[in-house]
Records
---
Amino acid sequence: MNRRLSGLTLSLLAIAMAGCSIFPDSRKIEYKSAGKVPTLEVPPDLSQVAKDDRFLVPDADGKGSATFSAYSADRTPAAQAKNATVLPEIDKVRVERSGNQRWLVVAVPADKLWDTVKDFWQETGFIINVERPDAGVMETDWAENRAKIPDDIIRNTIGKLLDSLYSTGERDKFRTRFEAGSEPGTTDVFISHRGMEEVYTSSAKDDTRWQPRPPDPELEAEMLRRLMVRLGSEEKRAEASLANVKAEPRAKLAKADDGSGTLEVYERFDRTWRRVGLALDRVGFTVEDRDRSRGLYFVRYVDPEVDNRKKDDGLMSKLAFWRSSEASASSKVQYRIHVSDAGQQSVVQVLSSEGGTDKSDTAKKILGLLLQQLQ
């Protein structure tokens, strides 16, 4: 959506907003997806009410017809407590951190946690765009935080009529990564943020384009806090666990014996492996496969600008058929990110598609991007 409004609309807004506060509460989050949820269709055989069952008194034990006295007895508090299905409570959630990265350790296997996390994102206002349980990856679509839009008199007065004309000029998407925890039966949950912003392309401000903006670690922390609460933690405990604490640098660039670039991470392999996965998510790589036993991530880079265009269903987007080549070109090259164990620390390298050491400038840039996230 473009942030420009018509002259008449701008005049009305200027009059209505005179003397009003236009600064939104930056702590509020009210996401609205840029896409649309598919329309729910009810199968024909489920749309009719069974006429014969309308006046039957239901029985709790499923043995057939029931008398009213038996029905009443089954509905006493004691009987309901006895027959109730006890849902598992997720109350063992803690936060771990390294550098500027934070993640949750949940005492539940990933397959039991998947649906709960999916519900969390949908309740937050997102549509799930990617679901890959086999790879432990869930990704939302692009959405706009509507809470950043000024809550002025014109919106309160006219409401939905003009609400679609407002835009923050920003979009966010989040990727959730599930990793088997170091303790049996636990799952490490990572949330990474990617952002886009709409900027003017000329001094006349008559046209705009979307471009990437840096990932926001504090927004990731806020989503982790909300997920902690969704999983059963108390508000105050979740907030205290994710309080921002300045950390010492945990990584640096170096050179291997063959002259290629490397990234030294001052942590053991297990933790470095998890942190590299989150770093790849943050800088825009799509993990196609991974082999933890060999310390390999198989990744491709997805240009966020091209990815964001997929949500533009306008006529000009359909006519601009040449853009499809951009999307294919950006995803042709596969990279291998190798994490090796070096005792009390780990070493990260970029390998070629054949498995050899990559000494190209691109490999150095990738290591530089990872350093920003791992230090």
Note: The chain has a mean pLDDT of 74.
---
Amino acid sequence: MDRNTPDFMAFFDAAMRPGSDARGFYHRNVRVTVGPDSFMVRVPMEESEVMDLSIWAEHDILSVLHPHLTHAPRLLHVHHDPYFQVQEFIEGERVEDLHPYGASIPARIIDDIVVLFSELLSFPESRIPALPADWPADGDSEGFGAVLLRLGRSLREDHGKEAPRLFETLGIPEDPFLPLEDGLKDLTSRPFRLLHGDIHRGNLIRGAQETFFLDWQLALWGDPVYDLADHVHKMGYTPDSEQRCIRGWLSVAPGECRRRWSEDLKFYLAYERVKSSVVDTVRWARRIAQAPTGSPARHTAVQELTAKINRARPYWSQGDSGVLAADRVASAVTEFHQA
């Protein structure tokens, strides 16, 4: 098939047929095969709740990645009315299917992630798309952290309007990010770099020999230590795998990016944990309600939400070492859905 003249609207029509999609959080992702060629069609889901920071259209960042990043999908077509993208299809299996959350990650995959970090850290600033007019200046880590906290607070406000009693019962304060405010001024100024912003098992495809990295819609230009923290938070590493990843990042990060990295990693991890407790309280409450009473799926979802909140509680509980019990979480969710 001649890739220069495919009927991309036919791809879109195929992607929109009922039952054809594999849903991500922000997109329908549909494999379309024509003869020997396969393509990935990505169509935004209008009903998606925005829970993450995004400064670029995904097609804008994908269009500049190559040749600087070697294992990202290539953008083949963008259609604006209706909006959809066509990307090359990456053959392989998702890492989350091969190695579920919490399971050990093979060293070869971690090494590929370190290669990605190396390429992100060396990505030329001249190639990035235009930044928002109010974006923090290069090296303004405090300003970058402030942008994150503003997003977190807006999410808490929005979710609190939907489920005020649920948040109250679970002990999540109106401003769970307030204890992190003092940490902003302590963030070290370091040069901004390209960040993927969403490196987790669901966005990793393991091919025959290499790992590929999908979903670039949350890419940012900012403090590179944040990308490491976001990755460590979302990846669910075992302790040994986490340390291998961090050592790998340190081995490829320039000296100016490593300054006080450990202290700032703690700040960004705190942010990610608090943010997760906010955005996942309502999301997981929905999952719990949809699972049959007494089912393993319901039990697992309750345990997961309990863990998310307990990881965040130390940051706002002023030294209270107590933990939230799973039965309290289950009861609060039941009350929320019966209200």
Note: The longest strand covers residues 27-34.
